[in-house]
């Protein structure tokens, strides 16, 4: 989608601090982190939100989770733990309508998601 900020990051039209990339997934630092480690993982394919995933996307979703573990290891949070969060649609807190997951870590997160 031409107006999607995450698609523009995938296409290298706008800069991002990329920490991981393969042929299906990209991960980059969030510009407004809520934890010491706050990485966004996105599919390179534009999918608007979690409800738009189809059967043909199941391998892609698996690859995002594999990438999340690699990123957690790279960022030094895999051993102590991290949180992987998806906000779905407006009432779920989604702001950018390109499927993405927040990898949060670098401090004890407790049992409640950060505000």
Tell me about this structure:
The structure is a single chain. The chain is globular and about 35 Å long. It has one domain: 2-Layer Sandwich (HIT family, subunit A). Helices cover 20% and strands 22% of the residues. A five-stranded antiparallel β-sheet has the order 1-2-3-5-4, with helices on one face. The protein is an alpha+beta fold and 115 residues long.
Briefly summarize what is shown.
The chain has 115 residues and is α+β, with helices and mostly antiparallel strands.
Q: Which key features would you list for this structure?
A:
globular, 115 residues, HIT family, subunit A, 2 helices, 20% helix, alpha+beta
Helicity, as a percent range? 10-25%
Query: CATH superfamily, called what?
Result: HIT-like
Q: Which whole number gives the mean pLDDT?
A: 95
Here the CATH topology equals HIT family, subunit A
Oligomer: single chain
pLDDT < 50 runs, ≥5 residues:
none
Number of domains: 1
Helix-strand blueprint:
Blueprint: H1 5-10, E1 18-21, E2 25-29, E3 37-43, H2 58-74, E4 82-85, E5 101-105
Antiparallel strand pairs: 1-2, 2-3, 3-5, 4-5
